Amino acid sequence: MFDDADPILGRVREIALALPDTTEVVAHGRPTFRCGKMFANYGGGLKGGKVRYDQSVLFIPDESEKPALEEDPRFFVPAYYGPYGWLGLILEDTTDWDEVAELLDASYRQVAPKRSLAKLERLTLRGALRRLRAPQGAERRACPSTPIPSGRGRNNGVGGHRAVGTRGRPA
Known about the structure:
Layout: H1 7-17, E1 23-27, E2 30-35, E3 37-45, E4 52-59, H2 66-71, E5 75-76, E6 87-90, H3 97-111, H4 114-133
Antiparallel strand pairs: 1-2, 2-3, 3-4, 4-6, 5-6
């Protein structure tokens, strides 16, 4: 039902797996992206019909945006997931990948545990500060939500460990 070499699937993977604690699991013959619970699914079909959109992403939309998305012809109500509030977005070569990233981010935030959301906020803040500090014309990252190791020890500053210098003083 899907091809690992599909470049559109590759872009969806890049975006989804950049979110903290996300895993990819193949379920019912399709890649799904989860952070505890599923927040995205690659490929789907139209509710009530036999139309398949193999290059699409299913997600949980923000409730305030759902009516506007349903009016857009690129979006559809997917079979099986539609009754639970999910929508699908048909993906093409001309897809706005920033929009896909925003939709997946919103979907992720609805299912991710508090710990993962806190990691996401730290990454978002770190990325915003990095962009503010970057000199004009500096090279930009292809995916701004991709985490960059901070180099603050083995846990990257997460978890309460602190570096201790000589004589028991913090380094």
